[in-house]
Each structure stands twice: as C-alpha cells, then as structure tokens.
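Appendix B: complex inputs.
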Amino acid sequence: MSVSQSEFLAALLDPAAPVPEGLLDDQARPAGRRFSVYRNNVAVSLTEAMHQAFPVITKLLGPQNMDGLAGIYLRRHPPASPLMMFYGENFPEFLAGTEQLAHLGYLPDVARLELALRRAYHAADSQPIAPDALAALPPEDLMQARLGFAPTMQLIRSDWPIHAIWRFNTEDGAPKPEPGAQDVLNTRPEFDPAPQLLPPGGFDWITAMQAGQTIGQAFEATTARTPAFDLGATLALLLQGSAITSVTIERPET
Amino acid sequence: MLDDARRMQRLPAAPGVGYKPQHYAEILDQPGPVGWLEIHAENYMGDGGRPLAQLRHLSERFPISVHGVGLSIGGEGPLDADHLARLKHLVGWLNPASFSEHLAWSTHDSQFLNDLLPLPYTDATLARICDHIDQVQETVGRQMLLENPSSYLAFAESTWSEPDFLREVARRTGCGLLLDVNNVFVSATNLNYSPQAYIDAYPLDQVGEIHLGGHDEDQDDHGQPLLIDSHGRAVVDPVWALLDYVLDQSGPKPVLIEWDNDVPDWPTLRAEAKRAQSALDRIPA
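Resulting structure:
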C-alpha cells in the first residue's frame, strides 16, 4: 500500500477528502486526524503569509474574512515557488473576480499597491544620482537628458484613491480618503518603500521616460494632455525617493 | 567582502539562534553566548534591500548557517533547477559555515506547499534522495547536512527505520546530518518508540549541527498524545534531557535554538541560548 505524492497532495488541499490509505498511526491504525496536522500546517502558514503580505487588505476586510479568502486563494493559486516573499501575486485578479467583493471596487488596486511595496522591499540595490545632478545641468542639456530608474521604483495607476486609502490605514491621523482617481509612485529611499501621490501628468511623464524619451519629449507629450503638469514636483519626488540612477545626454552632432 | 579566515571557518560548538530581523540590533549589542546564526535560505533570495544588507553585516560578525526549507529533496519529481541555482548563488555569495536541508518534500507538480511533508522510508525513496543530494552537493559545491523530520504518522510501505535510512543516505552521498533533537522527541512520542533508542541507532559521528525547538501538545483520534513541531515556544525539559543524552555520546556540537513563531524578545531567546551553553559546558572534557 503505497501513497504517491499526488495522492497526498490532493488530500492535503481538500479537507473533505479521505486520508490516503497507507498512512498509519503508531499501532498501524488509519492516521485519521494525524494527517490533519499537515493540512493545518499548510493552511495556517499560507494564510499567515497572506496576512503579512497584505496588511491593509486584511485591515479593510477584517482578519476573519481575510482568513476565509486566503483559504480559497491557496487552493486556487498555491505557491508556484518556495519564495514566499512573492506569494500572493495573483491576489489582485482574485479579488477582482470575487463577486461578493464587487462593491469594494478599490480592493484589487490596493492589493496591487501592497504587492508593489513588497517587490520594492526585495528589489536590487542601486546607486542614485546626486540630488543636484539635474539642477546643475544647463536647460538645453536637461531637455535632452534621458533617465535611468532604480529597480525599486514602481508606478500604480488607479481609478480609486488608493494612496489615500493606504495612508488612512497605515498612518495615525491620516485624512479620510475622498473619492477620485490616484496615481502612485512607489520608491525605496533606503530600505523602506515609500508610496507617494503623483501630481497630474506625473504617471504619463515617468512612463514616457521609462520608454526612453528625453525629458523634453516626455514633457511635451505630457503637457499636451495635462497642461498643468508640474515637472519640478515630479522630479522632486523621484529624487527624494532615490529613484533616478542615471542621466544620459546625447548632444546633437556639430 | 569575506576574508580568508571566514572562508575556512565551520560552525563552532557553541549555541546559535535562528535569526529574526527584529533582533538585529540586540544581537549585535548583546549576543551573550550566541556564537553563530542560522537563516532560512528562502528569505534571502530577493535581489537586495534590507534583508541582504543585514545579512552581509551579520556575516562579518558571526558564522552563518544557511538552512533551506524549500528545496523538496524528497520530491518525486526532479529538483527545481531555478531554486537550486538560487541556493548556489546564495551560498556562493555568503560562503556560510554550514548549509543544510530537510528529509522531506514540499513541492509537487510546481505547487509549493510551504510545509515539510513526510516520506516513506523505502529503497525507492532512498535512491531518489541520494540522487537529489548528489545533485545538490555537486551544484552548490559543498557538503550539505540533512535534517531528520518530525513525524505525525507512519507509512505502511516503509521498510527502513529512520536512523538506518539517514545513516545510509550519509554513507552513499557523503552528506552530513543535522540532528533535530526536538524532532526526535516529537516523532518518538507520536509513533511510540524510545527517543534514546533512536539516538543509540543514529550515526552521531555524522552530525554537523543540532537543532532544538519548542512543540505544541495535541491528541490524536484515540486520545494519544500528538506533539506538533511548532517552533513557537521554549524547549521543554525532556528535550533538554535528550540533548544531554546526545552530547554525552557525541561530544560538543553547534546547538541551535529555533523559535520561528510567536517570536520572543531577545532576552528570552538569549536565555534559551544560555541554557544550551550550560548543556555544552557540562560535557566532560
């Protein structure tokens, strides 16, 4: 009577399934609830991992609701790798597809923000440019410059006020969220990820810069859609977040 | 940068603790008898940030033991080549004093279960484990230690005792062994055998490291005690006594306190390390 790992696994993930025959107690009786130790270990450890990964979602839903969702999630999306730091990658889509949560439309984007924070926490280190490196450039050079960004930097665009929701649930005394779309820039100044609210147009400009445009090209494209775009404020957020790692200037050939 | 002296070191026959980031500053300021630290390999497989920066700094002060919890050495399928490459990278970068993994499986069909799942002790399992350990030692480029599990049930198909199985794995592969004394106590209670008899049958000469940890108490369907390896509390007296029994025969060894859940404050964990130091001190020279 042998028990394959497929059988063991199937019974592990289905609490209603019978314990595989061939698993015994000390007197050669069926293992019974001894098998439940493994079921419990798996469910508890993966549920705990979801609590740690998504503290704001857990707070918004309440720990018990989060336990229930984590239990469904682990059966639908068991970890695909032993790196638990990346467990939960499918959680935003899972939340978006969960009908009972449809009235909380902001949850998937808040989950995306929490995933971004965790990715940034573990992302590669890099050397930021000096804070005055851009200010020192003549204006014509500045407009010709292309920028490289830190692996820790991430952008999240949302139809919901996710930055305000995140702050309200993580900072004492943060203002109550007001309705409205928000774009978030997540940076990691040293070791702790810091999400910042981007001014209008900031998301488009940084996205254009990531695609390799010059500061001038990206500025023109952005102001065409968002005349009020504040380049200085956007650059300040990037510099404070140690998010710019290189400045490249290609001078026109003379 | 690691200097040559660090490259040559092994784990000292001293107390170590499982490293928790919340203890970072206090470990550096007030290590007490703690002579080395153990990390879970998978927590240091990110690309950068605070975990690797802390580890780099700690490795300048303490010998480090890299303890993998996710390689699934007992898996029926092939080892995860990506994960093996990550281990090779971490061990190459850190050059730890020890590298260990578990006699268990945790991955099947690309699903990782985040638990150490049990194996039947058969000739087929033995051959597979030995192949996998050969592959690990060849890839990572150094000897590994293999840890005995805590058992909650037995397999009808098993034909080897656990100590004999481990002895044979070590003989065939040249790997060393990590003896988890709490796991021996837990398994012996759950499967109703003598922990001392287990130790008597176990190849203590292959032991490169000892683990101690706390366990929870439950009952099975028949009201029999069912101990659960939780790493969530202090080591109990009978496990300390079993440690003495081991050390009397093995001589001094590196002894680790594992406390992974409901992690206590540093003085509490350090007190456990002091008790391990006392156990090492009482071994006759």
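Residues 1-8 of chain B have pLDDT under 50 and may be disordered.
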